[in-house]
Design goal:
11 strands; globular; four-stranded antiparallel beta sheet; mainly beta
């Protein structure tokens, strides 16, 4: 395995977005790592740094859960989502989506909106 999870595609499913990845290896996990420290897995941990938006293009922090080899993203503030982002900032501290092999997911966005 040469890479952490890479965004592949998304599907809107009612009030949530299902995100599929390439390079998931043997599965997705919540984990943290520091520069010189080993990775620490958190089986009951909460995913961080996901955001979701509706057609109004207003981003809000989202609830994100691992469901098999995908992540499901939602927010009560966005009943009809159209786009999602992960770690999409200049300094995305706190990113914690990894594959089981210990490689972190790359930041991504599902939208093509001009900023």
């Amino acid at each position: 395995m040469y890479s952490g999870p890479l965004y592949k595609e998304m599907k809107v499913d009612g009030d949530r977005i299902r995100i599929r990845f390439d390079s998931v290896g043997t599965g997705l996990i919540v984990a943290t790592e520091e520069v010189f420290d080993p990775m620490v897995k958190y089986p009951q941990g909460k995913l961080q740094r996901f955001a979701i938006a509706g057609e109004d293009k207003k981003w809000v922090l989202a609830n994100a859960v691992i469901n098999g080899k995908m992540v499901v993203v939602s927010s009560p503030d966005v009943p009809k989502p159209v786009a999602a982002r992960y770690a999409y900032s200049m300094c995305p501290n706190g990113c914690n989506l990894h594959n089981n092999e210990g490689l972190p997911a790359s930041p991504f966005r599902t939208d093509e909106w001009e900023e």
